[in-house]
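hey so i finally got around to running the thing on that chain from the lab meeting. sorry it took forever, my laptop kept dying and i had to restart like 3 times. anyway pasting the input first so we r on the same page abt which one it is
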Amino acid sequence: MSEIITKQQNELAKLIERYAVQDGVHATAIPTLFFIRRSKLTGPSYGVYKPSLCIVVQGAKEVWLAQERFKYDPADYLIASVDLPVTAQVTEASSDIPYLGFRLEFTASEILDVLSDSEIRITPRGNAERAMFVGQMELPIMDSIFRLARLLDIPFLAPIYTKEILFRLLQGQYGVTLAQIAMEGSGIYGIRDAIEQISNNYDKPLRIEELAEIASMSISSFHRHFKEVTAMSPIQFQKQLRLQEARRLLLTESADAADVAFRVGYESPSQFSREYSRMFGFPPRQDIKRLRV
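ok and heres what got predicted. didnt touch it at all, straight out
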């Protein structure tokens, strides 16, 4: 990395530490911007990444998308371009040098606006591409990130600087890949709508024919494109959403595991328990007891 990037990251680290005094994910005055702090190594955490730009300012992290691992540190940035269920883990952190992260969420509409307003010309690709990738941090991207982070006292200017960040990303190493989520006719465009349908109806039976129609694809083409974008099949994608929501319900409510299983769409509590154990390493009751200690 260049000395300028390193200097800006050091300044950004000081800013994040000022706003994120305790461990956790911290909302900011900019609704789409979040700071993350961890003062020790963490076990795997499960969640859905919205379309977002993630950077590590201090420390290191890895994210698993199905069986695919993405490692990144201050030399990189990570992008999720659609909603994706993932497993994440901080791999470098201490009380003296905590992990510090920056996450900026965006929408396909914002990408399209930047493409429309700029002179960037990108052709839609018929073949789908992975919706998560790690790129090498570049000075124009870091520079625009640094300026956005300094706007917390004047957040109404944030949309302008967010637009600049997206512009720099679209000009960068993975600009063509990022642009596809907003471009009608690209392989990822229809999959994005199918993902939204699954996410909004994760507790209902999966109808592949309906999803393929939403994506404007044949069933075989839909299966192929969906796995290329998400690294998993539609059924595996839905299963991760169901189990993540089940775990959240078990942690936040005094609910019976069988009741939660039905609420997230399982017809068989025994099947729910097996799949829950496979994903989280413990049966539901034992897992929740362990997490509450």
